[in-house]
Design a protein that fits this description.
alpha+beta, 3-stranded antiparallel sheet, two-stranded antiparallel ribbon, 4 helices
């Protein structure tokens, strides 16, 4: 079984392409692979969250990244009715039902995620390194933002004409 190693520079630099390959060859179920034991440190998580990605390659999927503070870290790629537009990547702890966020040194924070034709806030347990670097976190796909329609302000009509 192949393991996604975030400490390899070429993997970080080409993460979007690598993720497409993993999904394409049947590793979309990595979230269920309990025997994968990649240990993540803060730098590996920070490298992953600051790397741009393309939502066209993995919309609506979950990717297991590794273990951090004894808890699973996953990347959810969430989209709604216009996938892959508006896809949001949420990298968070995947806690067991009896596990608390504070027990794994996580920080609970709400993230804006697409829902139907709108968006809603949902609480997640994030590794502290993510919340400490929230401004650098690549939540929305950079590549796909070009395809998002921009609304322009309506032009005012002159009532005298």
């Amino acid at each position: 079984m192949q393991i996604l190693h975030l400490d390899q520079p070429q993997m970080v630099a080409a993460s979007a392409a690598a993720l497409l390959v993993l999904v394409g060859i049947g590793f979309a179920g990595l979230s269920n692979a309990a025997d994968v034991s990649t240990e993540l440190d803060n730098q590996k998580i920070l490298n992953f969250v600051t790397t741009p990605y393309s939502a066209t390659q993995i919309p609506g999927r979950r990717l297991f990244l590794g273990m951090h503070h004894g808890a699973r870290v996953v990347a959810d790629f969430i989209c709604s009715d216009v996938c892959p537009n508006y896809t949001v990547r949420v990298i968070h702890y995947d806690l067991k039902q009896d596990e608390s966020c504070s027990a794994v040194s996580g920080i609970e924070r709400k993230a804006l995620i697409p829902f139907s034709i709108t968006a809603t806030y949902k609480a997640y347990c994030f590794p502290k390194v993510i919340t400490d670097n929230w401004q650098a976190y690549q939540k929305v796909s950079r590549v796909d933002q070009r395809s998002v329609p921009r609304l322009s302000k309506p032009k005012r009509r002159n009532p005298g004409n």
